[in-house]
Amino acid sequence: MKLYSVNDNYINYLRKFDTKVYDNKENNRKVMRKYLGIVLKINELNYYMPMSSPKKSDYNSDNSIRKSIIPIIRVISDEEVNHIPVLKGTLRISNMIPVPDSELILYEPKYEKNENYKILVEKELEFIEKNEQMIQKYASIIYNQKIKNYNVSYIKNVVDFKLLEKKCREYKMK
Hints:
Layout: E1 3-6, H1 8-15, E2 37-42, E3 45-52, E4 72-81, E5 84-92, E6 97-98, E7 104-107, H2 115-130, H3 132-147, H4 161-173
Antiparallel strand pairs: 1-2, 1-7, 2-3, 3-5, 3-6, 4-5
């Protein structure tokens, strides 16, 4: 799997229709780095699954890392600090979006100038490659649950896949 970012204009276009689409925050970036994510094929479309930095909500009260759940996969490194696994980030399955090829921007870690960020991204990619089947499975589950309007608590926080697929196809035709 490879990492990508998505064109800001396309993200802004989709956010007009669904505010659950992650904002690229093009005007609030602390560093000139876009959000990165991976791309899967679902319903014959590219689906971009954004990554996010760790948050307090990713930890239990004892500071242990919460287990991955269908809407959020926690990216845990093989490295440990004081015999404790390190959380590198999360994959936000509930916020994955359909994206045309033309709006995907390949991210190549080998060209990263910030060495610390390059190491972080490489650790995240290692986890993603080792867990590709789980990621595909969780993405398929959440996609089908949303499409079929399952009565599961987290589904209300999932983007509207059918609407965004329609808007993606309209965008491609422009």
